Structure prediction request, 660 residues.
Amino acid sequence: MSDTVLKVQDLSVWYAVQQGGLFHRRNVDLKAVDGVSFELARGETLGVVGESGCGKSSLARALLGLVPARRGRVLWLGEDLLKLDDKTMRRKRKELQIIFQDPLASLNPRMTVGDIIAEPLWTFYPEIARVQVMERVRGMMKLVGLLPNQVNRYPHEFSGGQCQRIGIARALVLNPKLIVCDEPVSALDVSIQAQIINLLRDLQRKLRLSLVFIAHDLSIVRHICDRVMVMYLGRAMEVAEAGALYRKPLHPYTSALIRSAPVPDPAVARSRPDTGLTDDMPSPLAPPKGCVFHTRCPYAVNRCHRDVPALRRMPHGDWVACHRAEELDLAIVKPAPVKL
Amino acid sequence: MSALLEVRDLQVRFDTPDGDVEAVRGIDFDLSPGESLAVVGESGSGKTQAFLAIMGLLAENGSANGQARFHGEDLMAMSSRDLNRHRGHDIAMIFQDPMSALNPYLSIEKQMIDGPMHHLGLGRAEARAHAVEMLRAVRIPDPDERIGHYPHQFSGGMRQRITIAMGLLCEPEILIADEPTTALDVTVQARIARLVGDVARRSHMATVLITHDLGAVAGVCDRILVMYAGQVVETGTVREIFDSPRHPYTRGLLDSIPRLDRIDDTLHAIPGNPPNLSDLPGGCVFRERCDRAFDACAEPPPLFDLGEGRASRCHLEDPS
Prediction:
């Protein structure tokens, strides 16, 4: 896409982990993110989904330089963020913001809501008069659906959904161009999740924001994302346009994720076949050789045990890392409802 | 069929620095042998506190009133010594966070054999063999070896399966599961739900599934109890609740589930936030968030009986 703002190439995040007992201690690399590449256009939302331990949060943090990257490039408007010194990176942060999963834990309990939202302004623009700052803060509160007259209250006086709105207001106050949302609704009640998802989507359209939306829930992602990247054990399995991904996934793991999402319909939920996924996810400290998914894949053949599949482009433009993508037909068939 | 557990006018209140909080404000329900009941509500609806009260596990500043008759015996009136005959034996509870439910200092074996030795009178070797069988049933690989391991040596999904195995050890008549799969990944969730269902069918065990996600219970429960601000607002079979919800809150909950099988541009959300329990509004507590509120809602609605086990706490059902 010509309007690309973010280009990530071969990004890897490794953590050094000590293993073994007192006398057999050795350092092992935990490859949380291992060679992930993607692009993001202006005004686009990319969903990143996967189970816990797949590296999606590490990826989110590495994009903003909150955890060090081992390898790769994060090109923001053509400039590699990983090469910037701390001072320059700090200035860049005006354009790049993040919203965290736990809304209450990410707000300072001793600061008023007004101060929490205003803090980024004071940090980056200390010369602006307090009156103007507070005016902007009230404007932001209105924008995210909070009452501006609650500006002097403390976080504990708000519910989870309202705290997440405060987090969003704080992220937006500097007019950023990119927001990384790290599971912003996982901690919220279902009825409130929908409020926050709708708010994020409206704001994104109004302000033409680019969003990277991290989630473990495919159905949430479907409602807000243009494209979706599916991760497993630190690697991208599939990157595809959202509609196509849910209709006809290319990777067996994507298909298993879709088929294990709960269906809120008693008749359909009861007739659903098993996903065929066996065992738990292997330890990221000892990922399987060959394709990392082969130990759980119902379609694995000899080649999958041996060769790592590259993420490659399919004729219609979506990306997949599976040796057998061409021959497998993983189209999602709606199961017929059973009679209760 | 006579009820296994009969709960009548159960109330729970907490004495807090901000004043009294009425967490549960009089709920009634029956649980039959082998039945699978889902208790659904948002955080603060009182769904968890109601069952902690029945199990005698309320925090120190909490107090409970009402009755919970198990085989005719009132659990609420029992001393904690008498309750211990039932807890973990014929009534077991599984909690949301498997890491805090397991003792990190003890091996799984140590944590699993005490219950059967105490409640079933098994010897150590028998209790161990029984525990190994149960771990095998929840699909822990190499259970004979892994039973000697400590909680941190298992993945999150395996730990939750271990707590489920522990809950099932003494073949309880009632298994209460509080958001047992919320902390788990979807691929694991589906399998655990299936597993509990299989065990329940085999041993005719009644299950109570406490959750905030109506979407997750469609495939696993017979009957649903919807709670809001400490009260039951609707009950019915899973089919009735999903096909023809009567209470506006239930309808709102159903509509706000994000779905893979249907794509709408805007997700339906219930506006506003759950009410503050220490300062409840007068009239119907859902009124402020309800799209169908009318004059009558200034008065608190009773739970209207709609026949055949259905009920809804809404003035729309008022026959007069």
